[in-house]
Write a structure and sequence with these properties.
This protein is α+β, with helices and mostly antiparallel strands. Helix content is 65%, strand content 14%. It has helices spanning 8-33, 37-63, 72-104, 110-170, 173-189, 191-211, 219-237, 261-274, 313-325, and strands spanning 216-218, 241-247, 255-257, 280-289, 292-300, 331-337, 340-348.
C-alpha cells in the first residue's frame, strides 16, 4: 500500500500539503491564461485534485523500477513512458471535463480555454510526475534504510540472546559441577592436564564475552572457540567421545555470524554423548564452495532417539539468526539417516560494505 494511504493522518497531511500547491497552479493559470481567479479555479481546481492521485500512482512505478546503473536506460524509458501515459490520460480527462462544462454554460468557452492552456497543463503534469517520482524514490530509500536498521537491530538482539544462552549453558550448575569434579581428579593425577582444562575454560568464556558484542567472526576464531569447548567435554565424557574435524584452510578467514558453530556442536554433544553411554564420533566439516561455505555436523543417534522428531531451541534460534544475517539467502538442512543426526549449513559469502 502507498505510504500516504496507510493511515488517515497521512492522508490528511497529504491533503494539507497539496492544497497550497494546487492553489498556486490555479493562480498561475489565471495569470498566464488571462482569466479570473474564480474561472481558473473552476477549470483547474478539479484537474489538480485528479493530478494528485496520478502523482500517487508513480509510487508503484518507482517501486518496480529502482535505480540501478546496469538498467539505467530501462529506468529512463519506463519513466518516460509512464509520464507520457499518465499525462495523456490526465489531459484527456481535462478535455472531457471542459466539454462537460460547456454543455452547462450559456456561452461555450471552457473547451476553448482548455485548448489554449494545453501546453501549460502538459508542462505542469510532467513537472509533478517527475517531482513525485523523486519524492517516492526518497521514501523508498528511507524505508530500505529503516528495514536494514531493523534487521541489524534484530540480529544484534539475537546475538546477545545467543551469548546469554551460551553462558547460561556453560555455567549451568550441573555442567560446572562435572567440570570441577573432573578438575579435582586431574589436579592429583595430572596437574598439567588440569592446567590445560582451566586454560580452555578461560579461553572459552573470553570468546563468549568478546564476540557476544560482535555480529561477525572469522571461521578460525569460531573453530578455536569450539576446540576449547570440545577439550573440556572430552575430559568430562571420556574416551568414548571422539571428534573428527576437516576444516578447509580457505574458509578460515571467511566471516560468519558469531556463535554459529556452537549451537551445532553443543546440540550434537548433548544428545549423542551426554545422554548416552555409547561410544561414537562427532564429525565436523567446513568446506569452501563456489557459492560460499558449507558446514556439516554429524553425530550418532542413541538407540532411544532413532525416531525422535523435533529440533532443539538452539537450532531454531540459529536458523532465525542466519535468516536475519543473510536476508534469507542462507540454508539449513536437518535430517536423520543411517543412525546419524546431520545438520548442514549453506552460508553465502559475506558481502563487504561498498562492494
Amino acid at each position: 500500500m502507498h505510504p500516504f494511504l496507510r493511515s488517515l493522518k497521512n492522508l490528511v497531511l497529504m491533503g494539507l500539503v497539496w492544497s497550497p500547491i494546487a492553489f498556486s497552479i490555479v493562480v498561475l493559470v489565471s495569470s498566464l491564461g488571462g482569466m479570473s481567479l474564480s474561472d481558473s479555479a473552476v477549470l483547474t481546481g478539479p484537474l489538480m485534485a485528479v493530478n494528485l492521485f496520478f502523482c500517487l500512482s508513480t509510487w508503484y512505478i518507482c517501486r518496480g523500477a529502482l535505480p540501478d546503473k546496469k538498467n539505467l536506460l530501462s529506468l529512463i524509458l519506463r519513466h518516460v513512458l509512464g509520464a507520457v501515459l499518465l499525462n495523456a490520460i490526465w489531459l484527456s480527462l481535462g478535455f472531457i471535463y471542459s466539454r462537460v462544462l460547456d454543455s452547462f454554460a450559456i456561452t461555450p468557452r471552457w473547451g476553448e480555454r482548455f485548448d489554449d492552456l494545453l501546453p501549460l497543463l502538459l508542462a505542469v503534469g510532467l513537472f509533478f510526475y517527475f517531482i513525485s517520482s523523486l519524492v517516492h524514490y526518497l521514501i523508498l530509500v528511507l524505508e530500505k534504510n529503516r528495514e536494514a536498521e531493523r534487521m541489524a537491530m534484530e540480529n544484534r538482539l539475537l546475538a546477545q540472546q545467543a551469548e546469554m544462552n551460551v553462558l547460561k549453558a556453560f555455567i549451568h550448575p550441573h555442567f560446572l559441577f562435572n567440570s570441577l569434579t573432573a578438575l579435582s581428579v586431574l589436579t592429583t593425577k595430572s596437574p598439567r592436564a588440569a592446567r590445560e582444562v582451566c586454560l580452555r575454560l578461560s579461553d572459552f568464556l573470553r570468546y563468549s564475552l568478546t564476540y557476544g558484542q560482535q555480529e561477525w567472526a572469522a571461521v578460525r576464531r569460531e573453530w578455536e572457540h569450539i576446540e576449547d569447548y570440545l577439550e573440556v567435554e572430552k575430559i568430562r565424557i571420556g574416551e568414548r567421545f571422539q571428534v573428527e574435524a576437516h576444516i578447509d584452510d580457505k574458509t578460515l578467514t571467511e566471516k560468519i555470524p558469531s556463535f554459529t558453530l556452537f549451537p551445532l556442536i553443543e546440540n550434537a554433544v548433548k544428545h549423542a554423548f551426554q545422554k548416552s553411554m555409547e561410544s561414537g564420533t562427532l564429525s565436523v566439516k567446513i568446506e569452501n564452495r563456489a557459492q560460499g561455505i558449507r558446514i556439516q555436523v554429524s553425530n550418532p543417534l542413541p538407540g532411544d532417539e532413532e525416531n525422535t522428531a523435533g529440533v532443539g531451541q538452539g537450532l531454531k534460534n540459529l536458523r532465525s539468526r542466519l535468516e536475519t544475517a543473510y536476508s534469507g539467502e542462507a540454508g539449513m538442512t536437518i535430517k536423520r539417516e543411517g543412525g546419524f543426526f546431520k545438520v548442514e549449513l549453506r552460508l553465502p559469502r559475506r558481502k563487504e560494505k561498498g562492494k
